[in-house]
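Thread title: Can someone regenerate the structure for this chain?

I was given the following input by a collaborator and told the matching structure tokens would be attached. They weren't. Posting the sequence so someone can regenerate them.
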Amino acid sequence: MRYSVLILSFLCCSFSFAQPEEKEQTLPEVKHSSEWIRIKHLHEQMPSLTRNEILELQTEDAGQLLQRFPGIHVRSYGGLGGLKTISVRGLGGQHTQLIVDGFSSPQDQTGQINLGTVQTDNVEEIMLKSIHLNLVPASAMSAGNVIILNTFENRFSYKKNELRFSQRFGSFGQTDSYLAYKKGDSLNRYFVSGFGKFRQSHGLYPYTVVNGSHLHQGIRNNNHYIDLNAGAAAGLVLKKGGNITMNYRRTVIQQELPGPVVLYYDHSDETLAQDNQTFQLKINSNFRKGFYVKGFAAARTGKMIYHDPSYFNLGMERISNFTNQGLVLGANAVYSGFERFSLYLASEQQMSRLESNEILGTPHRQHHFSVAGSKYEFHKLRVITQVSYQYIAEHNTLGQTFQKQRLNPFVELTLTKIKHKEMNIGVAYRSSFRMPSFNELYYNNIGNTALAPERAEQISLFTDLVIEKKRFDWILRPTVYFNQVKDKIIAVPSQNLFVWSMQNVGFSHIKGFDIQWITSIKLNEKNKIGFLSNYTFQHATDQSDPTSPTYGHQLAYIPKHNGSIDLSYHYRKHGIRLGVFANSLRYALNENTPGNEVGAFALLDASVFTGFDFRSHQFRVQFSCKNALNSSYAVIRNYVMPGRNYLITLNYEIAK
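Best answer:
Regenerated them for you:
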């Protein structure tokens, strides 16, 4: 009964806005691809990668793609299938919302997305946004940062038939097959699509560990990985304007879990099995001039089984089962019928529950988001103001119950100057907070039900300079920022090495600067040179306790310097690409001592590719050598990464 009342009140709030006046105004373009939020690639203040760039990078997952973005640090525990999480400008992954085809991806159990499981074969575009968006779900508008991912299967097209196929063969037993088909019509009135992807790797790669003056070489064990992704989608254009889309996805993963390589000891036998399913429905409507409405719903279920056949080498078997269920309802409304002024409202309700033999009780969470904002444009000045409200009600069957609420303001001022070039200069302030995950609250021997939400304040000064000429494009995006995090949730030892507890003991400052530089030079009709580079400086320090030995020290696993450079040459559809990615040294703990250092590294990737067309058929072949200098490195201490490895990719596409 309480869910019925909650849903009814949510829907009433979502659509309780005044009817707009009938004025003759120009409605901003709303693409049938729905959630293709980026209108012009060169003129938006958001780093992004398009399909062609993604194909050339030949990444295994979204985590590797995001390494090419300024301000992002990716924590990787291994190669294919390895856990990958991110921090954006010093804020943990829990402050970042992942939006896939316009839908949020809440993770109440762990608190953040494992980007190592997010495939990239079907990605048309991936973007990082830390400033204003008004057409994403309310949870994303309330988050500290947003990653937007748009896929091939969930967009409208003027093509009647589209087929995509790719096959990869790589080192360490890697095979990867992807097949997708989409049926539409030339009037762009509907589409129906389906896809499937299978990949596996035995992951037995060699490694070298340096211990003082000694080198130890070995083979990474217990690293087999296999996953299967499949899904279907459909969309229909409505007669009165707008469209309706729906999709279903299922991901099944079976993997072994390699442990840290410590003191020449590399033994582990744990496994993890996952089965995740999602159904999503969305309706977009622009039936009135200057008036845009979107409603959406999503249901998900996820199962995870962790198996340790030799628990702590005590001869005991441990099997942990987790079942996570969730329902999301939401709506957005934008009115742009005024000359220089627009309004937007958003509301979203997330309901989730977790069952497990490892969790104390059965927690239920209801998380409500409401957002109201406005945008004012006058000549070269744009002012955006927004306030978001979050309400969380949580109940555990063992009796723990709490309620929390918070208001988060957002302000952005942007000045635009156009004279043979486009230049945006702006300043933004955002407040956000993230709830403790189910694991942090309830997990056996670790959970702490008294945890407070982690709060973050962000101030940034950004510039977006674009110069476009006939043969030359030049984009420069520098950003200076200051962030602070209060009530930071961290794990600290309690009884022994294996029993930890979660506490609110952190307060940190993050001062930083990042810059993206993109250049494209068209030598002639057949030859082109591309240059993409990113650099990030982050001074993220612990400010919790002036008497603590870690006071003023760099936070664990956040490098002060990291960046990448990619240089490409294209001759028609043939070309080569060289890429360098580098991280400065980090510290495994907040205490910055030589014993806690994790070494700096630089990686070189090289690839050569060729393509040709035959009528409406397109073929492409690419050979890549990753970590070409065979560097021995670890992103996370003692979790050794692959050395030199190779990948061959075949792509086929038909669109007519």
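The CA atoms of residues 402 and 548 lie 32 Å apart.
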